[in-house]
Amino acid sequence: MSSQQGQDAKFFQRGKIEEFRAELQAAESKDKKYQKRKTVLKKIVANITMGNDMSPLFHDVIQCIGTPLLEIKKMVYLYLVSYGRSKPDQIHMVIPSFLQDCNDRNPLIRALAIRTMAYIPIPVVTEALSEQLRHCIKDRDPYVRKTAAICVAKVYVADARKAERAGFVEMLRDMLLDSNATVVANAVAALSEIGDRQDGVIFRLNLTVANKLIASLGESSEWGQIYILDSLLRFVPEEHSEAEMMGERIIVQLQHANSAVVLTAIKVLLYLMNYMENRRLIEHICKKMGPPLVALLSSGPEVQYVTLRNILLIIQRRPTVLKNDVKVFFCKYNDPIYVKLAKLEIMYRLAREENAQEVLTELEEYASEVDIDFVRKSVRSIGRLAIKVEAAADNCIQSLLTLIETKVTYVVQEAVIVIKDIFRRYPGKYEGIIPTLCENLDALDEPESKAAMIWILGQFANRIDNADELLDDLVYSFLDESTEVQLALLTATVKLFIYKSTSDTAKALVHKVLKWATEEIDNPDLRDRGFIYWRMLAVNPTLAQEIVLAQKPAITTDSDRMDRGALDQLLLHTGTLGSIYHKNPETFIRNAAGRALVDTPALNPSSRAVLIPLSRPHPPPTTVTVQGPGPIEPTSIPPTEPSNPTTTAPAEAGGQDLLDVGDAVVRAENYDGEADVDGEDEDEVPRKAGDPYANLDNAFGGYLADKPQPIGRGRGESTNFDDLLL
Question: Which of 478, 605, 650, 664 is the most buried (most CB within 10 A)?
Answer without folding.
Answer: 664
